[in-house]
Amino acid sequence: MSFTSRLKEDLRAAREHDPAARSGLEIALVYSGLHAIWAHRVAHKLWETGPLGRFPARVVSQLARFVTGIEIHPGATIGRRFFIDHGMGVVIGETAEVGDDVMLYHGVTLGGRSLAKVKRHPTLGNRVTVGAGAKILGPIVIGDDSAVGANAVVVKDAPANSIITGIPARNRPRGETERKPAVDPAEYIDPAMWI
């Protein structure tokens, strides 16, 4: 995918996830979550080059943290159409893996519970939504199409199509009325405003 196509895809994802978004230009200029994602892509590319790229990757990551209030370790793997709404206080650890079409609200932590140099951060499947202040800790897996409630503390795996709430969090199957509707963004977004 080309650089320009990826930018347009990010802008569309922001429009799909945020009903307050007014234009592609506004999103590109003032959405800190999007800025953090763009910086992460640069940092991640540097990180993947090996030992010589690791220090510059951390510098880019820390500059992005300073500017956006969002800390994404350059080693984290982030999928396409990832959106962070509001963003302040989001922390994503080094071995975290985030699928496609995932949305995080402010104050979310994808953190570890171990100091060992192993996979120690969570894996989020595709189309997962994580509510404000939620903490997902350890090398656990949250299945596709799941939703984590605000302020939940998740320390165990959850299967696909789960609603995960509480401290410590418990999961239950997502009911039919709780499923995300499949909406074509072209139905409610003016493509001319995407940039």
From TrEMBL:
This protein's pathway: Amino-acid biosynthesis; L-cysteine biosynthesis; L-cysteine from L-serine: step 1/2
Keyword terms: Acyltransferase, Amino-acid biosynthesis, Cysteine biosynthesis, Transferase
GO cellular component terms, A-Z: cytoplasm
Keyword Amino-acid biosynthesis: yes
Pfam families: Hexapep (PF00132)
Reaction(s) catalysed by this chain's protein: L-serine + acetyl-CoA = O-acetyl-L-serine + CoA
Single GO MF annotation: serine O-acetyltransferase activity
InterPro entries in alphabetical order: Hexapep, LbH_SAT, Ser_AcTrfase_N_sf, Ser_O-AcTrfase, Serine_acetyltransferase, Trimer_LpxA-like_sf
Record carries keyword Transferase: yes
GO BP annotations, alphabetical order: cysteine biosynthetic process from serine
E.C. number: 2.3.1.30
PANTHER family in UniProt: SERINE ACETYLTRANSFERASE
Family: Belongs to the transferase hexapeptide repeat family.
Name of this chain's protein: Serine acetyltransferase
Organism: Galactobacter valiniphilus
